[in-house]
Amino acid sequence: MHELGIVYHIIRDVENVARANGVRRVSSVTLLLGEVSGVVPDLLLDTWRWAADKKSITEGAELIVEPVEAVTHCEACGRDYATVEHGKTCPHCGSGETYLLQGQEVMIKQIETPDEDPADAAPDGPSDAPDAVDAVDAANPLHIA
């Protein structure tokens, strides 16, 4: 099960980004997962829950998986098509001169932080700011390219 290794790498990357941005807790991580990445989404989610709860920064955090459709490009006719449905042979012209454009991704898209208790947000007392979050505001979550 290589999903465990992938989850460990995701958690490490989340820890690094959080540390660099002064974030103490993460509420969710959104992952782009390619249709032909070889990663089984259900195994990834189960493994995430087990491993994330062992780290204080990701404990209780949700892993959101956004599937990315596999798309292949044909160099002979210049058209794109669904990889899973048609494979390496172009359904438009029959050529095998094709390459994968997308669909192998395993990439963090977004890291969100939980709402912070207003008393923790302002050392001098409660804040009037609604929905304050730890180090990053909710309208502008961290994005990793």
Describe the structure.
26% of the residues lie in helices and 24% in strands. The chain has a 4-stranded mixed beta sheet, with helices on one face. It has a 3-stranded antiparallel beta sheet with strand order 4-3-5. The two termini are 26 Å apart. With 145 residues, it is α+β, with helices and mostly antiparallel strands. It is elongated and about 55 Å long. The protein has 4 helices and 7 strands. The chain has helices spanning 3-20, 41-52, 83-86, 118-121, and strands at residues 28-34, 62-68, 71-74, 80-82, 98-102, 106-112, 142-143. 21% of the residues are buried.
Summarize the structure in short.
This protein is α+β, with helices and mostly antiparallel strands. The chain has helices spanning 3-20, 41-52, 83-86, 118-121; strands at residues 28-34, 62-68, 71-74, 80-82, 98-102, 106-112, 142-143. It is built from 4 helices and 7 strands; from the N terminus they run H-E-H-E-E-E-H-E-E-H-E.
| C-alpha end-to-end distance | 26 Å
Largest sheet: 4 strands, mixed
C-alpha Rg, in Å?
20 Å
Q: How many individual helices?
A: 4
Strand order of the largest sheet: 2-1-6-7
Give helix % range: 25-40%
Number of β-strand runs? 7
H/E element sequence: HEHEEEHEEHE
Oligomerization status of the protein chains: single chain
Please render the helix and strand layout as text:
Layout lengths: L2 H18 L7 E7 L6 H12 L9 E7 L2 E4 L5 E3 H4 L11 E5 L3 E7 L5 H4 L20 E2 L2
Parallel strand pairs: 1-2
Antiparallel strand pairs: 1-6, 3-4, 3-5, 6-7
